[in-house]
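dumping this here before i forget
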Amino acid sequence: MTKRTLILIGFILAKFLLQYFLFNPGYDLQRDEYLHLDQANHLAWGFLSVPPVTSWIAYIIKLLGYGVFWVKFFPALFGALTIVVVWKTIEELKGNLFALILGATCVLFSAILRLNFLLQPNSFDVLCWTAFYFTLIKYINTENVKWLFIGSFVFAIGFLNKYNIVFLIIGLFPAILLTNQRKVFAKKEFYYSVIIGLLLIFPNLLWQYKNAFPIFHHLKELAETQLVNVNRFDFLKEQLLFFVGALPVISASLYALLFHKPFEKFRLFFGTIIFTLIVFIYFKAKSYYAIGLYPIYISFGSVFLSIKLNTGWRKYLQPILVAVPIIFYVLLFNIVFSVKNPNYYKENKNKYKELGLLRWEDGEDHLLPQDFADMLGWKELAEKIDVVYGKLSNKDQTIILCDNYGQAGAINYYTKNKNIKAVSFNADYINWFNLDNKIENFIRVKEFSERNDELEKTSLFFNMAFIADSITNPFAREYKTTIFVFTNPKIDINHRLKTEVKSKKNYR
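structure:
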């Protein structure tokens, strides 16, 4: 085994160790993770908000026992593979050992660490962006058309994971047209590879068609509720923060792509980053959508710097460049990662308040950063639902209706009673209602801000109604979320719910 291989294995092990070290067992999973885990129980070629790949990963986790270890393993794996692809790209660009270590360090100690903490499509998305760019570099170097087909496959898998990869193609197309690499459009193999890619994504496109293209509803809803609040200047500012320790390397890559003669044939990558960022800015995309852009530029920059810093006094800059990402990681550690228990943030609230980290999307300051508060209270909710459910008669005639997908997913993930299948009108749960059995018990999980008249309003349709419990963890975003119980209905609840489900679907 070569020295290079041993060092690469060391980076991979460091990646996994860091990811597991960042997991504080005092926190639960994050709300999105529960939705994705529940998708494993409803496999399809698409979902309302995401394509199917995440559900396939969740299904593997299900087969492995649904343990938290595996929930955290796969995002960490995709992060480790991203490091491997960057490493292989540097080798393809003839980088030396310093270039390999610099590139791997810049990727390891970056925003990708935070991204790889959660079971979401984002980790695999970054891997697919990086792998696609790698196949493009291999094609440019070798002109072997097999890389066109491999690139098509990578794009298709990336598309089936997250539609975000379409922005890669949008930004890449004009960049190719403006360079000599446009000659690829004259090759029949290019079009064969495009056809194969389309065939691979066709099942998802067919699912979208059969379901009235929910992606457009999702994008419209996203634009109206979230992207409308995106500030384009903030988008650019946050790009600098994602790889703040690697800024010298990324900056060097852009210079090299323009002026370093050996990189002349890769000049399209300079245009690619410009055009892709312009598209993201135009659509007011969330800042983290662009993270997949940068790892490949770390490869170019690392190789260029290894050449320029290889003689004389410049050699002494090498360890400094490697140390910079590590130093920034240490400085930002307590701010970015939920490694501290909630009480720590309460005791140091002034420091975090000054940094604006306690302000949530409601504009108010709270006890914890919102992302951390989103990982609390879920297990408590599921345990209390189990207690309430256990006291009911006619358990098989019970429906649990939640306000949001986090509540429903958490209940289904943590419950000790496998007959419990919580649902919601939110996200994919709108398609997962089972209303075949007559409903005798109606458990309503209601967010505190919306619960005020729930008992009075819904009790009109039942002979018995009461508040059973609520989430008592003051640090949780779901704090005071309440469990209402309604039994012995006066009307046909099945019919009423079927009507409402149909109405919600039609609205979508």
